[in-house]
Amino acid sequence: MSTAEALVLPATRTSVTWRLLRSELALTFRRPRNLVMMAILAAVPIIIGVVIRLVGSEGDAGGMIAQTAGNSLMLTVVSLFVLVPLLMPVAVAVVAGDAIAGEAGTGTLRYLLTAPAGRGRLLAVKYLNAVLFGLALTLTVATAALLTGLVLFPAGDVTLLSGTTISLGEGLLRVLAMVGYVAAGMAALAAVAVALSTFTEVAIGAIAATVVLIIVTQVLRAIPQLDWLAPYLLPTRWTGFDGLLRDPVPMSEIWQSLLAFGAYIVLFCSLAWARFTGKDITS
Amino acid sequence: MTVESPAELTVRAPERAPAAPPAAEDPAGGAAIVTRGLTKRFRGGQVAVDGLDLTVPAGSVFGFLGPNGSGKTTTIRMLLGLVAPTGGTHELLGLPLARALPAVGAVVEGPAFYPYLSGSANLLRFDAANPAASGRDAARRVGRALERVGLSAAAGKRYRAYSLGMRQRLAIAAALLTPRRLLVLDEPTNGLDPQGTREVRALVKEIAGDGTTVFVSSHLLAEVEQMCTHAGIMSHGRLVAHGTLTELHAGRSARLRVETPDLAHAAGILASLGLADVRAAGEEVTAELGEHAPDRVNAELVRQGVAVRGLAVARPSLEEVFVGLTGEGFDVDG
């Protein structure tokens, strides 16, 4: 066997990273566990839609529920409000918390690193994979909600939370913006979970730690004396997507939230990188 | 060869074992692995590897021996960049680690794969992690590697359903995905039945025949003796000896065993011929053969009227070499 052949590198670093990412995505989106989570979350809007359809027909519901019954797009908003505080973050935490710890637990981490995937590249690919899973999850939920809404409720102009009315087309654009916003929020959580994942060889530990963090911050948020802390907590920022349903959209708040997500991503990715690149792999 | 503990081995000029194929052209001057003072002290203060000076010549089949817990796996993890040394340096193929690793295949501490993926999907996964492998001919590479270890028929079967022997072979297939210059095998026959062990041995010989350096760790000395050209012996984190098998054996010279009823007479002749450490027991006289030719010794015994019933030269096994060097038993159960 020729030594030259062994040392020829493919064209670019990008193509190498892209190939590893594709392999990672294939693992994530073929894994039954992840598909089941996506299916369950996609079922939530359908259940909510059917329930509202039944209750709404009795004509006594108020607020957002009444609006949902009046317009197909609103089901997407309601579904995200139900799922974003806990269920979607848990699903993202399962994939992101598994990132490094899962590979360490099965021992495949040592083979990926001697392949050699490169620690920085592997971490980047793992994080990107978790971000894309969060995006896919949000898109799946939004799509399920939109389709259910279109089937069960009248389509047409959308009345916003602030009372103004916009066209269906602009409404769809705003839903798309909400998906982007929520996915950014999930990306911030994924950074926390991936960082925790570099500290253990037990995937369930990293996942549980992330979920506990989410619940603790939700509790902290509910304590009035800690109001000053709320803007710095991820769950506070997650539900900020309702701003996109007002007229005018409070852009400064939206930007602040996106900035907060960015800060979490930078901070926890740095932590993960520092930990993972200096770690002894003994699993 | 270097000797660090009870100094019984003589230092000789490096000599290539007869079985070693010619080394590939190598900028590092013919060494596949070089470590200098390589040390790992774990956080608890325990020293797993202590000042390891190891040179593995290119083209050799190097047996890395020692009881369980003697620091073999930690050394291998350091060589492959999984564990950071706390002291010393190491180099593979004369290259920086990141550039060397694509040319290094490794099986470290047993197979580890994704249980819910098939054998070939598992190999594709690790192939995708190798920056020196292009995606275009990945399927062909995987097919060839599976064929080489005899797993073609089980390629589509989930790893979960693989037997231990199949898992071990899949790990070797993963190490053979791309052409390698160095193969690091950590206990490759662990858990294999005698047939599987023979297959692995044959595979190692075949790979070495291609000019690939093979670094194989084992706690089974007899196994290594059958396939290696060189060996290094670890004990308590230190390398107590390393060199070609001939050199290692040379340190503890072969013993001549004479079966005879004329014990005292025979012992006297052996001593007068200059053989050292003559011992008589039962119906046997034994002595260190040294540089003497056994047939000449026999002729002399017979000429002086000793009735020789049997005569044999017993080469010390590596296990005896180990016991001689460390003064302790080679506890296989560790």
From TrEMBL, chain A:
Entry annotated with the keyword Transmembrane helix: yes
A Pfam family it matches: ABC2_membrane_4
UniProt entry keywords in alphabetical sequence: Membrane, Transmembrane, Transmembrane helix
Transmembrane segments: 35-55, 75-101, 127-153, 173-196, 203-223, 254-274
Domain of life where this protein originates: Bacteria
Coiled-coil positions: none
Name assigned to this protein: ABC-2 type transport system permease protein
